[in-house]
Amino acid sequence: MDYGRHTAYDFIAIPVDGSQAIHVDVRALDENENALTFPVPFVNIEISEYARLHSEVALPSASDADASPLSVDKYRILSGNVSNAFVFAVQLI
């Protein structure tokens, strides 16, 4: 089954013993099969110490060939975010 091609299958199952046929509904789950791609391998962002609280800084967008909900929907800071001084919001600015 390939979620990218078909997300659901519906069919009638007829038992070989002659019992009543039943309707079968199969829903495929999306698996993350594709790695993220970024336009550049590394980004260095400098933010002034005088930047106002809640200032917005654009980041390069990542893309994911998988269909939603497994497409890119958030970033996270792995280290160095002392006192949670920085947060990410996914939106176009």
Notes on the protein architecture:
The protein is an all-beta fold. The chain folds into 2 domains: 1-31, no CATH class; 34-93, no CATH class. The chain has strands at residues 8-13, 22-27. 0% of the residues are buried. The model has no long low-confidence stretch (mean pLDDT 77). One of its GO terms (cellular component) is membrane. InterPro entries: Cadherin-like_sf.
Helix-strand blueprint:
Blueprint: E1 8-13, E2 22-27
What is the count of β-strands? Answer: 2
- Uncertain spans: none
Whole-angstrom Rg: 23 Å
Whole-number tally of structural domains: 2
Distance between the termini: 38 Å
The helix/strand class is mainly beta
Strand order of the largest sheet: 1-2
* Overall average residue pLDDT: 77
Q: Which terms summarize this structure?
A:
13% strand; two-stranded antiparallel ribbon; elongated; mainly beta; 93 residues
A few lines on this structure:
One of its GO terms (molecular function) is calcium ion binding. With 93 residues, the chain is mainly beta.
